Amino acid sequence: MSFFLAVLTGGLLSGVMYALVALGFVLIYKASGVLNFAQGSMLLFAALTYVSLVERGLPVWLAVLVTLLALILLGSAIERFVLRPLIGRPSIVLFMATLGVSYFIEGASQLVWGSDVHALSLGISDSPVSLGGVLVSRLDLVAAAVAGVLVTVLALFFQYTPAGLAFRAVADDQRAALAIGLRLTRIWALVWAVAGGVALVAGLLWGARLGVQFSLSLVVLRALPVLVLGGFGSIPGAIAGGLLIGAAEKLAQVYLGDVLGNGIESWFAYVLALVVLLIRPNGLFGGGATQRV
Q1: Sign of the CA dihedral 184, 185, 190, 191?
Q2: Fewer CB in 10 Å around end: N or C, the chain?
Q3: Is 104 exposed, middle or buried (0-12, 13-18, 19+ CB in 10 A)?
Q4: What percent of the chain has pLDDT over 90?
Q5: Beta-carbon contacts of residue 16 (< 8 Å; ≥ 6 apart)
Q6: Which residues lie closer than 8 Å to 223 by C-beta, 6 or more apart?
Q7: The whole model's pTM is what?
Q8: Which residues are paired to 135 by β-bridges?
Q9: pLDDT at site 288
Q10: Do 120 and 213 touch, CB atoms closer than 8 A?
Q11: CA-based Rg of the chain, rounded to a whole angstrom?
């Protein structure tokens, strides 16, 4: 039983890391209906910018602040100069635009920061710590705590602030939001800025775990099953989906690896997502489309 709990706990903590990446997707998709494939590149840009500034002697707090400002400007620029001119175009056009932005960010990052692999240290040891008799990574525990704080802050922001209420109105019905005088472009710019902040947190944590290298942007692929499982427009779904995917991967690797192959952890989440798509196309926590006539 203790072994099962150890595997389950490790999977849940890994799922938190997936959920952090998925959050950026959900925020933008919920507000504008755009599947932002550039989220992985924004994560990479955040990690590269931070580690490069620290290597050049900036204090950690200042490097975080400058990186956050850079991500806010980057997200606002993507919304203003790429997506805003494409309003009203088919969803596939918007998706391809974000795909192009992703490659542009990666190329520009390589041009500015170089292609060397960097070690990113947050001052947190990755040594195991006992939690109720179960050994878990200290870094994973910190990541889970940070994710919990981030989700709480976002929930309070969208629930109680005027900007958050405006965001929820736009997410529920864009035409009704326009009718009562809300400015969609301003709200979308705000959402992209918030998504940049989420990319900063995810980039630092993933960079500390994997190192800062250009393959870091591929972490975005690990978030896709999370989005399918939890629903593209649900913030709680992103968290729950991440936890479910993380736990399912680890349990499948341990208990089914001998039968289905040791590489099961790399594809099991996608099979699970496919099954969910066949049963609930909107995800476990996503609502069905509402038609107004």
Answers
A1: positive
A2: C
A3: middle
A4: 16
A5: 140, 143, 144, 147, 239, 242, 243, 246
A6: 18, 21, 22, 25, 39, 242
A7: 0.85
A8: 130
A9: 53
A10: no
A11: 19
Residues 168 and 234 sit within 8 Å (Cβ to Cβ): no
One-letter identity of residue 171: A
Contacts of 40 (CB under 8 A, 6+ apart): 21, 102, 216, 217, 218, 219, 220, 221
Q: Of 233, 250, 219, which is closest to residue 39 (Cα–Cα)?
A: 219
Which amino acid is located at 109 in the chain?
A: S
Q: Is the pLDDT at 1 greater than 80, yes or no? A: no
> In degrees rounded to 5, what are phi and psi of residue 285?
-120, 0
The SS3 assignment for 212 reads strand
With 0-12 / 13-18 / 19 or more C-beta atoms within 10 angstroms meaning exposed / middle / buried, residue 141 is middle
Which of 125-139, 151-165, 231-245 has the lowest average pLDDT? 125-139
Hey, what are 17's tokens?
């890391």
Three-state SS for 114?
Answer: coil
d(CA 71, CA 74): 5
Among 70, 67, 99, 44, CA closest to 214: 44
What does 57-74 look like in DSSP terms, one character per residue? Answer: T--HHHHHHHHHHHHHHH
More confident residue, 249 or 265: 249
Decide if 241 contacts 285 (C-beta within 8 A).
yes
Chain mean position to CA 29: 12
**Torsion angle of the four alpha carbons 250, 251, 256, 257, in this order, in degrees rounded to the nearest 10:** 20
* pLDDT tens-digit readout, 16-45: 888 888 888 888 887 777 888 888 899 999
